[in-house]
Amino acid sequence: MSNPIVEMAGIHKWYGDFHVLKNLNLVVDPGEKIVVCGPSGSGKSTAIRVINRLEEHQRGTLKVDGVTVDETLKDIDGFRARIGMVFQQFNLFPHMTVMENCTFAPMWLKGLSQAEAEARAIALLERVRIADQAMKFPGQLSGGQQQRAAIARALCMEPMLLLFDEPTSALDPEMVREVLDVMVELAASGITMICVTHEMGFARQVADRIVFMDQGEIVEISPPDVFFSQPRSARAATFLAQLVRS
Amino acid sequence: MTDRFFLREAAEPVLPAPRTTVGAAGWLRTNLFFSGWGALVTVIAVALAVAIFLPLVDWAIIQAHWTGETRAACLDAEGKKAFGACWAFIEVRFSTLMYGFYPVDERWRVNLFAGLTLAALVLPSLLSGLGRIWGTRFLALAVLFPLGWLLLHGGVLGLPMVETSKWGGLMLTLIIAGSGMVCSFPLGILLALGRRSELPVIRTASIVFIEVVRGVPLVTVLFMASVMLPLFLPNGVTIDKLMRAIVGVSLFTAAYVAEVMRGGLQAIPKGQYEAAQAIGLSYWRQMRLVILPQAMRIVIPGILNTYIGLLKDTTLVAVIGLVDLIGIIAAATADPAWLGFATEGYVFVGLLFWVLCYGMSRYGLRLEYTLAKATRR
Which one of A111, B75, B222, B241 is most buried, by most CB atoms within 10 A? Predict the structure, then answer.
């Protein structure tokens, strides 16, 4: 068994007096697909943002690929460069073309030549099926295309771990499918993924384990078949019942 | 009666937009004579405009005196000052207004520098339509200004030295304003970033600087730079008076640029910072590659506003004894040979400032347009 990619042990976080993350414990092995779900305000986004230290935790230990992530971490930028992140609001850089969005970080941070970076970007843009939009600016693309471009941008850094923070929540309904399709393909490629999402169909299809959070704590970690047919916690059952009704 | 259910069989035709106004007559009716009151206001406004404008044209152009070597050219038959502007006065003083007391034989240096600066500003827009224009121009100017100082001041490479006390007129105005702009720009950006810094020392220092400098009038800053600074320097060390004025103006403007920049930085969504962070960029690269390029195009109008203010504020250097455009006019009207022609002088300088400021304004609009086109947003 190879070393885990993410090890969270007793992670706590407060915003002022507000206890947002309570004693999180989670170990993610290489190649695993984890889906984090739960009602809004349950701390799921905060939890995955702790992993690449966009948010700092105040108690507990976090190791990512064997590196202890806390205030002693020297090369925080180099550390973040190895973790891809896809945001709810895409957050593409609007002053760069899709191509530049994908090439600039590998060129600046990994020393790739422009030709190398562009070759890599084109390959990945083809994979997310927007190679024909490479020379456009993000503002000219639909939401679904932008999110796929953002996925390509993250992949261009060849991350060891991909974090998705509600990647389809800001999309118009007819564009959710195209993004999820790309994510399903990506999952099949073997990369480690941790995904906060409300897309239960995706979770059922892709996840190795479902992490259910509520009120800042992990309530249940179950395989998808168990989670969806007979959730072991009452809170998860209530949550799932609400999803079905809506 | 409309059916409660409906299924379309054929496409709806695309119709032209309705025409509410037709031709010039329609335009007049909708804009100027749309009602009785509208017509009345229009007539009064036109009458007022004519009443003010016609005498002005009469004074400035029709009855103006264009040529002559002395004030005699602008006197009537009885030897009194005639109605009509005396542009002969400006003509006689023109070269002093432009160059101050810079030696006539050396003025090619000033012209050369002006030409190079103009080229640095105009060439990038001809060469590329890319979004990095701002950087190129700024870099060109940042290199050009120290070189320009050497060229104008001389004393090297066989160029005769020309003391800065001989610099004056439009040349001096533009040098102070230009240097002020070039220096205050990076300083203002650093201050704006400093004010948002998480490090308390840097943040406090930036806030104190900005609030102190913004809280005092430019005249005070110039006085400090001119009179008080030498008191604190060790004996024997002197800094050129013009240099001190430029430093004063730059620091003053930097505080304003910083606040304009801060507005631009605040307009960038938090997600942009997070995406730049998450991809592994260091703080300075986040700023340089992601945040500032976006903030910059937001702040163009604000920066331009500050810079237009700076250009006009340079007239205050007269109080520390530098002879800018206003100084030259003041000196010229004190000349017994030309007594009584201050109006023409100030009108001319006013017009010159207007042309410069309007030019800057157009240049800024042009930059905005080019940048907007570059991202086609």
Answer: B222
CA angle B86, B91, B93 (to 5 degrees): 105
The whole-angstrom separation of Cα B322 and Cα B169 is 9
Separation between Cα atoms, residue A33 and residue A194, nearest integer Å: 6
ipTM of the complex: 0.92
Together in a domain, B26 and B91:
no
Residues 6+ apart with CB under 8 A from B63: B82, B83, B84, B85
Q: Is residue B69 part of a domain?
A: no
User: Per DSSP, what are the bridge partners of residue A161?
Assistant: A83, A192
- Going by the DSSP 8-state scheme, the letter that residue A117 receives in this structure is H
Both B53 and B98 in one domain: the answer is no
List per-residue pLDDT tens for chain A, 246 residues long.
578 999 999 999 999 999 999 999 999 999 999 999 999 889 999 999 999 999 999 999 999 998 999 988 889 999 999 999 999 999 999 989 999 999 999 999 998 999 999 999 999 999 999 999 999 999 999 999 999 999 999 999 999 999 999 999 999 988 999 999 999 999 999 899 999 998 999 999 999 999 999 999 999 999 999 999 999 999 999 999 888 665
Q: How many domains does one find in chain B?
A: 2
Q: Which residues of A touch B (CB under 8 A)?
A: 52, 54, 77-85, 87, 89, 91-95, 104-105, 108-109, 137, 139-140, 153-154, 157
**Do B44 and B166 belong together in one domain?**
no
Question: Which residues have CB under 8 Å from B13's CB, separation 6+?
Answer: none
Q: What is the pTM of this model?
A: 0.84
Question: Is B142 within the bounds of a domain?
Answer: no
Q: Residue B44 belongs to what domain range? A: 18-62
B266 with B193, same domain?
yes
User: Cβ contacts (< 8 Å) between A94 and chain B: which residues?
Assistant: 294, 375, 377
Please list the rounded mean pLDDT of every run of 10 residues in chain B (377 residues).
80 78 72 81 91 86 76 72 77 82 81 84 63 64 80 77 81 90 91 92 94 91 82 76 88 94 94 94 91 89 92 87 84 77 84 92 85 65
On whether both B185 and B51 belong to a single domain, the answer is no
Q: Contact B281/A89, CB-based, under 8 Å? A: no
B42 and B185 in one domain? Answer: no
Structure tokens at A221: 């970690």
Whole-angstrom Cα distance, residue A160 to residue A83?
A: 6
Cβ partners under 8 Å of residue A134, min gap 6:
A97, A98, A99, A121, A122, A125
- Residues in chain B closer than 8 A to A85 (CB atoms): 275, 278-279
**CB of B279 within 8 A of CB of A153?**
yes
Distance between A134 CA and the closest CA of chain B, angstroms: 13
| CATH number, domain with residue B281 | 1.10.3720.10
Nearest CA in chain B to A86: B275
Q: B23 and B96: one domain?
A: no
Query: Which tens digit of pLDDT belongs to each residue from B175-227?
Result: 899 889 889 999 999 999 999 998 999 999 999 999 999 999 998 888 888 88
Clarify whether residues B308 and B249 are in a common domain: yes
Residue B294: inside a domain, yes or no? yes
Q: Is residue B149 part of a domain?
A: no
